[in-house]
Specification:
Helix content: 40-55%
Order of helices and strands: HEHEHEHEHEHEEEEHHHEE
Number of helices: 9
Shape: elongated
């Protein structure tokens, strides 16, 4: 143990000083902890590590990280349970899932939990750091006004609440992300591929029906006549456009 501590201290003498904020790593494998920690320290981030879900939740509250790298299989609180808990505390903090799961359905479920992106194991260090940094950049874009009104809808992105015709409407965390991207790009034609990349946070997916299904759900919740939408429009052969 002493030798390991000496080695860690020696390694850290040779890495750049942290200045870009704190990355929280929630991972129970000590070897994986060390690998991921070193990656982000070299990129000039401060890093805190939790080996179980309960400690991860406590550190998230106390350290206010700029992003979280979250393993799915954890002691005490699983990653599946923990992700929505983190998002409930701070919806704007990016959460990137580490997962060995490759089934398409489970990937969609991860994003429905509110995760900003995921990386499957085994992964390349460059891919993980790139995805975390991209998620941080997306979060730091100029913010949409907290309360946004269009048609018969009023949305408070900070409180994650929405009303249609004065009646509260329940949106998932991911539906809020999609709606926010539309409001930030009002009257711009957005392709399905762009939405997958910018909202779901990944570049390759076997079908763009994921986008169609999510927009259908938003229309059912926010449009007065979902069959004839006036805000979330389909631009045939191109994608979708949001009209306030």
């Amino acid at each position: 143990m002493a030798k390991d501590m000496e080695l860690t201290n020696e390694v850290e003498k040779n890495v750049p000083a942290a200045k870009l904020g704190t990355i929280l790593i929630i991972e129970d494998d000590p070897r994986m902890q060390k690998v991921i920690r070193r990656m982000f320290v070299e990129e000039c981030y401060s890093v805190v590590v939790a080996g179980d879900g309960r400690t991860g939740l406590d550190l998230f509250r106390s350290e206010r990280p700029v992003a979280v790298v979250l393993d799915l299989i954890l002691p005490q609180i699983s990653g599946r349970e923990l992700c929505p808990m983190l998002k409930a505390i701070s919806s704007e903090t990016p959460v990137i899932i580490l997962s060995a799961i490759t089934e398409v359905v489970d990937k969609v479920l991860l994003l429905e939990l509110g995760a900003d992106d995921y990386v499957t194991k085994p992964f390349s260090p460059r891919e993980l750091t790139a995805r975390v940094q991209a998620a941080i950049r997306r979060q730091r874009k100029p913010a949409t006004p907290s309360v946004y009104r269009f048609g018969d809808c009023e949305v408070d992105f900070q409180k994650m609440t929405v009303w249609h015709l004065g009646v509260p409407v329940v949106l998932t965390a991911h539906e809020f992300k999609l709606l926010k991207f539309f409001t930030e790009n009002a009257e711009r034609v957005l392709t399905r591929e762009l939405l997958l990349n910018e909202v779901w946070g990944y570049n390759f997916y076997p079908t763009t029906r994921t986008v169609d299904n999510q927009i259908l759900k938003l229309r059912q919740k926010l449009e007065s006549d979902p069959a004839n939408p006036t805000h979330l429009l389909t631009i045939y052969g191109a994608g979708y456009k949001f009209i306030p």
